[in-house]
Every structure is written in C-alpha cells, then in structure tokens.
UniProtKB/TrEMBL annotation:
Protein name per UniProt: Phosphate-specific transport system accessory protein PhoU
Keyword Transport: yes
Subunit and partners: Homodimer.
InterPro entries in the record: PhoU (IPR028366), PhoU-like_sf (IPR038078), PhoU_dom (IPR026022)
NCBIfam families: phoU_full
Family, per entry: Belongs to the PhoU family.
Purpose: Plays a role in the regulation of phosphate uptake.
The encoding gene: phoU
Length: 229
C-alpha cells in the first residue's frame, strides 16, 4: 500500500515536469506567433493550453485524494501541498503563453509588435523559455543551488521589461496608443511568466530544505548556462 502511495507521489512530480515543459514550449511558440503574425501557430498554442489545464486539474484531484486517504505528515505532506501550489504556478504560466498567442490572433494579419521592438520581445520570449526549462530541471534534480539561481536570472527579465517601458515613454514613439497597449501587455505577460518560473524553483527549495528560498544564499551562475533551452 505504501509503495503505491509513493508511486503516486512520484507520478505527481512527473506531471509537474511535463507541465513545465509544455508551458516552456508554449511561450516559445507564442513568441514566434506574435513576431511573425502566424495565425496557425497562435491557434495551436491557444488550443494546446487545454492539455496543461487538464494536467493541473488531474494533479489537483489526485493530490487532494492522497491527503484524504493517506493523511501524510512531515516531508510527504510538504510534497503534496507544495505540488498543489506549483501546479497552480504552471497552469497560470500556460495561461500567460496563451495570452501572447491570443494577442497575435487578435491583430492578425497585422503585427502586434513594431519592427524596432522585435529584438527585445524575442529576447524576452527566449529568456522566459530558458527560465522555465531551468525550473523543469530543478523539478527533476531537486538541486537547491540551481533553484536559487533562478531569482538572479529573473533580474535579466526585469531589465528587459524596463527597456521595453523606456521605448513606450520615449517622445519618439510613433506607433500609436493601440500598439503601446499591446506592447505593455506583452511585457507584463513575459514578466509574470518569469515570476512563475522563479516561484516554482522557490517552492522546490522549500520542498527539499523546509526553509524559504529568501533565507538561503545562492551560488550565482548566468541563465545562459541552461543547455538546450
């Protein structure tokens, strides 16, 4: 009975990794859709979010059933409760990727992003994808040092977001109010996506150590260290 219980805990962990991989892919594809005004790709991202939602709902039901049946304590209880919170972070990340794709669909056949901001939005999208890839790796390895690095990596997203905002308030802005609103929303979507990746990593730190990530000092390495993101 206990073996089946721990297999179920492992299965919940596997689903979290799958969710992280799906939403990481989604933000990458949504970025391509918004920059290339690719309606078919945007629709694909929007429709694919259903799988993330289904995984989250299924995980939530199984976790609640485990709490009711097994009444876990100590580390096992921490695993179940933290997994519920991480699944919510990942589900919201999928929604944010979907928002980017929906904006691409809304503006089609026009482009939502002016040509002079393509590089910044592309960089934000790539960084968001790398951060989520790193969060997925943390979920697999339970590497506390790697988890703690994500908050440092997120500083790069904050810098890009500020750069984007500087373009919007520049007197030379010539793209109109509607485009300014679109770009503002996009910047917020990417920033929040990155925040959710950091939140997942912080929850892994708590899961492993029982301590909050803000109370532990990381060994800092750059986000570019993620291979194959």
């Amino acid at each position: 009975m206990r073996d089946a219980y721990h297999e179920e805990l492992d299965s919940i962990g596997d689903d979290l990794v799958e969710m992280a991989r799906l939403v990481g892919s989604a933000i990458g594809r949504a970025t391509t859709a918004i920059l290339d005004s690719d309606l078919k790709l945007a629709e694909n991202v929007i429709e694919a979010d259903t799988k993330v939602d289904d995984l989250q709902h299924n995980l939530e039901a199984r976790a609640i059933a485990l709490l009711a049946r097994q009444q876990p304590v100590a580390t096992d209880l921490r695993i179940v409760v933290t997994s519920l919170r991480m699944s919510a972070d990942l589900e919201r990340s999928g929604d944010l990727a979907q928002h980017v794709a929906k904006l691409a669909r809304l503006r089609f056949p026009e482009r939502a992003v002016p040509r002079d901001l393509h590089a910044t939005i592309l960089e934000m999208g790539q960084l968001a994808q790398r951060l989520m890839a790193k969060a997925a790796e943390v979920l697999i390895t339970k590497d506390v040092d790697l988890a703690l690095q994500l908050e440092q990596d997120d500083d790069e997203m904050d810098l890009l977001h500020r750069t984007l905002f500087q373009h919007l308030i520049d007197d030379r802005w010539k793209h109109g109010i509607e485009t300014a609103v679109d770009v503002t929303l996009l910047g917020r979507y990417y920033e929040r996506f990155a925040d959710h990746a950091v939140s997942v990593a912080k929850r892994v730190v708590y899961l492993v150590t029982g301590e909050h990530a803000d109370d532990i000092q990381p060994e800092i390495q750059p986000v570019g260290g993620v291979e194959g993101a």
